[in-house]
Design goal:
The chain is 39% helix and 20% strand. The protein is α/β, with parallel strands linked by helices. It has one domain: Rossmann fold (3-Layer(aba) Sandwich). Helix 3 crosses helix 4.
Length: 122
Amino acid sequence: MNQRVLLIGGYGNFGTLIAGRLAREQTLGLIVAGRSEANARALARQLNVEWAQVDIFSDLDSQLTSLRPSILIHTSGPFQEQRYEVAEACIRNGVHYLDLADGRAFVAGGRRPSQSHLVAVD
């Protein structure tokens, strides 16, 4: 396996679709994650991948250190009600970050690339 992908919100609507597709990639090690251990475990068992209980509001740095993902996909919105803790934790831990934010204000509110390597794609 070349890359470990941590899919936060992996058992939600969009997360399940993404998980199903990524689980077929032989070069990826997928970790379905979210606050619900039961939901993450159930989908991971169905897809034959790893699972983890991850709360983005509780010591995400140590969770990233423990799980060692190279990529984090954040699907647990709504993003308009969040700040940038997940992206910032990824920056601190050298993890590539993707999200499904659909709110222009959230996307545009991130730090500029020259400050932190966060890039907003419109």
